[in-house]
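Late entry, written up from scratch paper. The run itself happened at the end of the previous shift, but nothing got recorded in the book at the time, so transcribing now.
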Amino acid sequence: MKGGNDKSLKRALSANRESKYLDFKESFDPTKPEGWCEIVKDIVSMANSGGGMIAIGVKNNGSPSQGDISTVLSLDPAQVTDKIAKYTGKQFGDITIQEAERNGHKIAVLQISCASIPMVFSEPGTYDIGGGRQKTAFSRGSIYFRHGAKSEPGNSNDLREAFDRELERVKKSWLGNIRKVVDAPAGYRVKVLPPEVRESDLPGATPIRIVDDPTAPAYRKIDPDQTYPNRQKEVVLLVNQKLNGRKSVTTYDIQSVRKVYGIDSNPNYYYKSKFSSPQYSNAFVDWLVEQFDKDSTFFDKARQKYKDGIHA
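Output as recorded:
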């Protein structure tokens, strides 16, 4: 899967039944512990099972619940990552939250990617149900997977499937890298470098030459937290400040622009490390404001294109 795929999203929006990769929830209140415990259980289960989607604002029979999902759409994915880390000790950030439509009604969709290694609950998910009683959504030391439309404790078959998925992913990665080496032009040398190239004064450091050629390989000179200081929540805040009342944008506006204009593949605007939520540069904020200055319907058009499935 399975999360983050536009075709999968369209199938999810038209599906009438829950499945291994799709869960319906009538509502989700981020202010209540029980809401977090139950949704963290489903997120972790789906990530452990290859990824999936949670549609919030949908009844078990597939009909829209027509509940208020504004608090869900206003969530920063980093908040979800923090809650998962609270119960698993792992900063799993491969989650997106977006607005969608189902049968003419607005819903929220959480798209969840596959976890490379299954997450284990390191803390129990318990919450008060009144009368001095507590309910346990999951126990410490348990590992959950999706069994059909349910999130349940895993078994040996689940673990084997998870390891097979990761093995297949690694094999594809190796083959892709081998292909790059085979296709390298004559005279090129192959060096093994860490994911982040950093400045160094050591004599053995690989020398590079900095140029302004846009076709040259990229080199990240400083800490990404300095060059990409904004989460999506901060982008919304900064853009609204710069627009100064001329337009009020939401996280869904930014999500629409990202998909329609391929922002996530633009290294000048977007950065994502392995264990955190996406980060954006100040240049991206300035670009958004510039587009609105050129066309006051820029965000409205992006929303419509996103709904129509017109993506970069």
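Strands lie at 22-25, 52-56, 95-102, 105-112, 125-130, 133-138, 144-147, 150-153, 270-271, 279-280.
(Scratch paper discarded after transcription.)
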